[in-house]
Each structure stands twice: as C-alpha cells, then as structure tokens.
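[worker-b] picked up task from shared queue
[worker-b] task type: protein-ligand structure
[worker-b] ligand name resolved to magnesium ion; SMILES cross-checked against name lookup, match
[worker-b] sequence length check passed
[worker-b] input payload:
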Amino acid sequence: MKLAIHLSRGSFSDQWIAYCEKYDIPFKIVNCYHTNIVQKLQDCDALMWHHNHALPQDLLFAKQLLFSLEQAGKVVFPDFNTAWYFDDKLGQKYLFDAFELPVAKTNVFYSKKEAKDWVKTATYPMVFKLRRGAGSRNVRLIKNKNQARTIIKKAFGRGFRQYDAWGGIKENWRKLMLSKAMPIELMKAIAHLWVPITLEKAIGREKGYVYFQEFIPDNDFDIRVIVINKKAFAIKRSVRKNDFRASGSGFIQYEKHHFDDSIILTSFKIAKKIKTQCIAFDYVVKDKEHLILEVSYGFSKHGYYDCPGYWDEKLKWHEGPFNPYGWMIEDVLQKVNEQKKP
Ligand SMILES: Nc1ncnc2c1ncn2[C@@H]1O[C@H](COP(=O)(O)OP(=O)(O)O)[C@@H](O)[C@H]1O
Ligand SMILES: [Mg+2]
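[worker-b] inference finished, payload out:
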C-alpha cells in the first residue's frame, strides 16, 4: 500500500506528509504538473492533492486528473462527490436543490430578460454573488431594484472582474486598521485597480449569468461546520463592522457552547447523503432553522488550529487537540483497504 501526495507548501500536504511520517504510512511525493503523472502513480493506491481554486494551473486540470483516476479505479482525495462543486456557487445551487437541502433561496438567470423580469418583483435587500470567490470577496448586498438592474447590465455586458479591486482596498484598509495587514498589502490592493490578479489573466471576466440569493437578516455571524471522515468541528465568525458578511472577517469564536447539537447533526447527515470526504458548511439562521449558504472541501488551515475539540457521529464531544488532515488520510486508507478486499 502506498499513497501519493502532491506537494504544495502551505496546503494540507504539509500535514499529510507529517502524519504519514509519524505513523509509518508508506507514501511518495509526486508532482501532478508532470505530463507523465499517471504513469508515475502506477505503484500507488491513492492520490491526494489539495488543489487550490485561486491557482490558474490547478484550475486547468486538477479535477480532470483526479476524476480520471477515480473513474479508472484509484482512490483520490478530493474525489468527485467532494470536489466537483468546489468554488462553484452555481454548481452548488443545483446540488442543494437536487438534495433538497435547507438553503437560503437562490435564483440564477442566464438571460438578461429573465433576470430583468424577475427583479421587478423580487424582495429587497437581496444578496448578489459571483460563482467563484472566498472570504466574502464576491458577495454584495443589493438594496433595491435599480441596483439589481445595474448588476444585471454588467453581468450580461462587460462582466465582473474576478477580483473586486475597490472591495480589496476596503478590506485591506480594514485589516490595516486592525493591525491584521501590512501597509504593503494595501499598496498591492491599490495596484490591482489597474493590474489584474493572476487568476483574472487566466480566466477573464465573470459573465453570462446572474446569481441572487435571499438575504437572511439579523445574522451578525455565520457558523462553519467541517465534516471529515465521520468527525466534525466548528467555528463561529462574526461579521465585519457595518457589514453583513462574516467569512474572512477574522473574528472567530471557538468555544463549544456556540454550536448546538442540531447544526452538527444536520452537517453529519448531509455529508453522508452527498457522500463527501470533506466538507465545510457555512450556515446562517432563519426562524431558528440553519440554512446553508455555501459548501467547500478546501479551507484555510489557520482558522482552525484553535478549535478546542470535535464531535463524533454520535455527537460525543472529544475535548483536546485533533488532526483533521490525519482524518483525510485515514479516510483514504479505509477506501484503499475496502477496494483490496476480495
Ligand atoms: N443570503 C445571505 N444572507 C445573509 N448573509 C449572507 C448571505 N450570503 C452570504 N452572507 C454572508 O456573507 C458571507 C460570505 O458569503 P459566502 O456565500 O459564504 O461567500 P464566500 O465564498 O465568500 O465565503 C457569509 O459568511 C455570510 O456572513
Ligand atoms: Mg463562505
């Protein structure tokens, strides 16, 4: 038995490698960008690659490589059920609808006329999102019909930049004031008014559709629950000052009392239903019900080092440090072993 791990410093691969070394799990480091990658995996039972939605070269083929291998019978992380909708809020709309999940109601239009007709009778404020984006970057509040019309015009006209430069400046200024960013980062954000980010150079502008979501009021935080291999952990993120957006705010609370059993149970149930290896759910609350805003297999490790413990599937709390990256490895190992059974 041997695992292949794509090395990408700062990604989950750091922890995967450390875990394999600690527990003597045979592995080899591979470079998925190599044209002969498939041949190089011949002596391996599984491939693990924490691919990144913001890296153009990963976007080009990470899923295609992983899903091809999966289709041919190799165990991969993340697999199809885990990753096809990664950083794809359009894809997630259909996933949520198909599984009838509890969500903030979402409407997507692919024609200007339909969108314009719909916004006439829509309820305001509502939330506009781009298909891609993290840390609230591409999420905006639309206060009235006129704003919605302007958005529609742009969506079916020039389209949107992948990087909202003014939003970036505002966010870096906010972080600078909180001593959470350096002046150079603000300078870079200002430069992006003219200079496109790498992703923009690769995939161009976002257009041809418009995504509107019901605004769920009175949430001064969102809750993120991550489920991996039948275990769950959670964080609560407060919104920015004078803003409705929590993701990326940096204001995180970790204590167990913030999370009731029902949100953990719901997360376990959905993770099982859609057969994912790893999923982060972002929730807000409406009339005491938890509604999903989006899901993601990838997450930034730094936000979770301070989690004080985790829940198992029976909702038993396990206090103390834990290693979710090790859980990913264990999940892959279990699948490899299942495959090897006669
Ligand atoms: N429909 C909504 N109603 C209320 N708040 C929302 C809604 N959608 C998003 N938010 C807020 O905006 C933040 C970012 O939205 P999200 O869809 O999770 O995008 P991102 O991919 O940038 O994290 C969330 O953390 C939440 O606080
Ligand atoms: Mg989010």
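[worker-b] attaching auto-annotations
[worker-b] The mean pLDDT is 96.
[worker-b] releasing lock
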